[in-house]
Structure prediction request, 426 residues.
Amino acid sequence: MSQFQTTSSQSWFSRIGGAIKGIFIGLIIFVIGFPVLWMNEGDAVRNTNALNELTKVTIDVGTPEIKPENEGKPVFMTGPAATQDVLTDSVFGISENAIRLEREVQIYQYVEHEHSETKKKMGGGTETVTTYTYEPAWVDAAIDSNTFADPEARNKCRNVGIMRFQDDELMATNVSFGAFKFGPEIISKIGGRESYKLAPDFQLPPQMKALGARIEGEYVVVPYTAPSTVTANAVEQAVNAVAGNGDPNAAGQAVANAVNNAVVQQPVTQIGDLRVKFTISKPHDVSLIAVQKGDTFTDYKAKNGKTQFLFRDGTHTAEDLFAAKAASNKMKRWLFRVIGFVLMYIGLGMVFRPLSVLADVIPFLGTIVGKGTSFVAFILAAICSLVTIAIAWIAYRPVIGISLLVVAGVCVYLFISKKKAAAAQA
Prediction:
């Protein structure tokens, strides 16, 4: 593994200037956290209400049958998603009856890894040592080695090869669901992907063999160059022909035979090689809750305007689909809560950063101040997040909203009490 290091320094004046500029950016990031939290809570309530509404009006049909009385109504059905379509990847000679056939292409390249370590110096400056390491790996796109930080690595770890083949996705156009037909939007929701296993007797097309392609497990490897070598016996024949009678024609024929009878070397992965993997979605059972519309389905639109379309691979009950959707909504709700809190925390951290940089004139003192401001930023971000969430919920669920306000109030009280206690001890 190749390794290269660079060292850079930053003066205290430069750091304090950057920290002061960061105050304004920090304030913007902090403020953005409020609408993120507010809109997320409103959206969460609307999604919950829409799902509850759908739960009450869904008709359990069971098997996918077209019933005129269910037209325009939300129905639950489960059954096989089937197709007679045959998907063909003509480049690699794969042809299967499937709902989806995907090709994933990677290239073997040297990759630059960067790791930086910053140390504070007396006087408030910093010194950063950045270590670059290089190692080969399978990646999704070709890497330009001319951009490597190490000038020597640009040649020693030089990348070659291009993405001669691209990722591709083939999807069936005719997928039935009992008496119904799925349109492209519904077909795209069908999962059930699994690795495509190449049959033991699978033969690559002639054009791939000409490139030296080989099969390695579930991959088709296309070498950057097709390596081959002349058999030792054929070389010996050529040498003997020249040494024995000096007949150039015999020697030439022997060399030609050697080339014609060349054997493929033990395959070795080289920079620039490509490897191709396939995934397939075969016909299988699916379950859905949606509005019956003719011989297909559409979204359910709740009274609050939110749309719902519940879909899962496999055989499930209606309760399973509702529970899965509720869990998905909950995960999304908490994800954006965390995002809103982190935005506030990062923003406040940038606002308070000049204090720790000022104290960095004595490194250990700056570290102490930095930890203190980080703690304060965490507490304030938590309080602001709780208050924002609580106010947003009051309009929809007053009991929960008021409870959150009480929790936020307790946090504020404990924070102020701790500050007073610390001041009294000082």
